[in-house]
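USER:
Make up one protein:

ASSISTANT:
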Amino acid sequence: MSLHVMHLLPGLKVGGAETMMAKLAAGTRHRVTVVSLAGVDEVGELLRSRGTPVRALDMRPGRVSPPAFGRLLALMRELRPDVVQTWMYHADLLGGMAARMNGIPVAWNLRRSTPYTGGVKLSTRLVVRACSVGSRWIPARIVSCSRAGGAAHAALGYAAAKITVIPNGFDTHGFRPDPAARAVLRAEWGVDDDAPLLGTVARFDAAKDHRTLLRALAHARARVPALRLVLAGRGMTAGNPVLAEWLDESGVRDACILLGQRNDAARINAALDGACLSSVSEGFSNSIGEAMSCGVPCVVTDVGDSAWIVGSTGLVVPPRDPGALGEAMASLAEHSAPARRALGDAARARILRDFSLPAVVERYDALHEQLAASR
């Protein structure tokens, strides 16, 4: 069965949901059109370069306008997709209503494990509340990328019987150990091969809690003075005044390598001895899975499904605890190279066994075929 699936997102800047959607669009056996409520941005341009049709409605972020909703209704009538897959709250609500009004089955996609943490705006809280009420009649199914997220949303009033968990999937061919990239990037950053180097690939966002991460780094360097930290992602630059203030507050500016947004996450991960994620809210972290796929052990906070993802291959600490996080970072940095490699090998084996991209794409394809058949 070949279908036309429309993916609808609030925007197409680089982020976890956008990255997973792009991987799904590249791997699916179905025809795909991607629609952004806002602009095309980086992920949209990437998709277009691969030949995937992308449309943008130019809605102002956080603003719901009747004209933009009218354009969405008209676009669905024009494209006549068999199924609409929405991603994140605003797209769930608007895309769900538009799909229902056009008689098209829709599946929502939940990306957070705890909707009301990490600096969520009042407007988003209201949308979440509207979705919890509308979940009984708008979507045919609700996909959660994490087990924790599905349970948390059911507790908020989402229709529990409609929720199914499909985790993120990872390209284990693109994300793999790469000794050549390790050598090149470490030389570029002025880091010796045997110097302890940890890293975080995550955009600057309240949910990622970079302030705790930097305080943890200061704590870890009291034990391991040579430890350095790579920070990659949108907003992770010295030109970010809030980040700059936190770097100075923690006294770790000289220990951090600020890369900003990059499109070579696989190479960056391959250069690390360990990856860190200090989030206060996560669903199913792409950052963790990509690092593990590169054979990099992880230190994570116990939010969302992070502890389940790393299993016995990494270290887990409570959120918002710089002391505990710093101790775990120092412990990983103090591991011998063979011990870190053993943990990294186990991490990659876990991704290969449980979270491969082809298996996840197949689950989405099967879901969309089921929804189309029930239309």
